[in-house]
Amino acid sequence: MDVLLNVAQGFGVALQPVNLLYCFIGVFIGTLVGVLPGIGPISAMSLLLPITLSGTPESGIIMMAGIYYGSMYGGSTTSILVNIPGEAASVVTCIDGHQMAKQGRAGPALGISALGSFIAGTFSLVALMLIAPSLASVAIAFGPAEYFSLMVLGLVVLTFLTQGSMAKALLMACIGIVLGLIGLDSITAQPRLTFGRLELIDGIGLVPVVMGLFGIAEVLINTEQVIKRDIINARITQLLPNKTDWKASAGPVARGTILGFFLGILPGGGAVVASFASYALEKRLSRTPERFGNGAIEGVAGPESANNAAAGGAFIPLMTLGIPPNVVMALLLGAFVIHGLQPGPLLITQNPGLFWGIVASMYIGNVMLLVLNLPLIGMWVQLLKLPYNILFPLIILFTIIGVYCSSNNVFDVYIMIAFGVIGYFMRKLGYEPAPLVLAFVLGPMLENNLRKSLILSQGDLLTFVQRPISAACLALAVVLLVGPLLPSLRRKRELVALDEGA
Amino acid sequence: MNGQTKAPSRLNNSELWGGLIGFGLGVFVIWSGLKLKLGSINDPGSGYVLFYTGVLMCVFAVTIIVAAITEGGPTFGSRWEGTRWTKPLLVIGCLTAFAVALDPLGFLLSSIPLLLLLLRVIDPVRWTLAIPIAVFAPLGVWWVLKRMLLIQLPSGIFEIG
Fold it and tell me: B145 and A450: CB-CB below 8 Å?
């Protein structure tokens, strides 16, 4: 009964005209950046982070959340029609989605992708409503040791899931922690690594770092080669899947939804790993696995449902524990902090309107996305024809403006360019930026909780293993760190390794 | 790794240099941590976490270096083989010039040439399209930010914008 009252309160907030407008802007921009290759939700969210300042916290966060789950919808359009993933979570959709389009079945591929996403999005929201409040009441008992261990686990899971060498990913996570510690020490107020620059006293901003590593670096990589697009030019008809398509897709949608939701909750996981895991699962369960890669609708339905369910699940650790499980949620945490709010166990009780308003807006946003992605598909197809040589200067312009507006400081533009160059070389040398960014956000929290735990326990390191939740997190982190030394686990890691770069 | 295509002990590989840079950074972080004072385990100081993070960085960097020496790796040159490597350099050059010009010239006078350069230099867009985009995109953005969102952009010494 309480849940129903809360949901009603949430809809009261979400249905306010201004929040509806922000929700629409969010899902529209989300679909747009999902459709456009070369700019992903991370870049778009950091670009719009300063704009959230102009409205209420509800409006700003509703818009930011809309960009995230909206991009999950939009990404599939580019994957299916152009064979280029609009964002990282749609990489796997290219495999069968584009083959379906080549066989003249772009309509059902786009249709099942949007409908599967809607079903998964709806399920994950209902689960979020039911799980988050109970988890939040448990999380109140968490102390600094638990928070520290959870953050360590989150970082280790992300490095485990990152493509390529784990040592490189761990090195990146360490560099992220160091970058996050630049500025005044939160306990002693001593300046650290500021090199006498006043601009660094408050630390490096999240926006220039993310825009550099993801936005500018992506542009630099893309300008290296001539981007060829294999756009399906045929008119898209019959978007609704037929009976046979539904029969084949029902199982993958259901499995993808549940799998995606739970993978989304895990720290370090998220939409990308969920889509890959769902594809692998469907291929394994299929009686005709040879159809996968040749236009099997299950290969579109499962991953697309999984990435949307994961997008919903990822809100749970952020809203209940205050710990962002991935880079996108780290940016959302930034939006909360900008408005003076601290997501965590007390958010739901102290700010019920905000929490339930965001959840309700996500449901409304899912309905908006269904309309945007089915009847209006033609509009997005036209947009896909925009050449990259016109698109990238505009991406750079918006990136610069986003960074400048976040601080009104030219120094941040320099920081962004520097991180753009660093990010470019990192990608060329096989170093993933995602662990660096997540560690950059978690670094100060991690340090704070470590130092608090040590002070409270009077220097007793056993405090981390004597508390069951902390011990379990650390044990899992150790398994994941040591695991890649075992050949069987290394092979599994290579199978699920992901690229968070979009 | 294919032993036939890669010499196992080749030292001039990018993996090795990546590891060495990481190691150098790790040493710097350790030194910074020590300089800031470690404190004690009962009361960790400002440099405590930095110091141990630096130690971990050195450990991971050494792992990368050892793997690079024992398994070999691609050379720097091969990472850019078959790519238009001058294009990213041009973009970086344009961006740096823009950043330098932003404060003295202001947003409009610096962003219009930046856009024109990017549109013409990388994969040239025809002049009839490049000029309107380069002029109207910054103008439009400037108008929205300044007039609608009341966000101040640099106007430079000429006070344009």
Answer: no
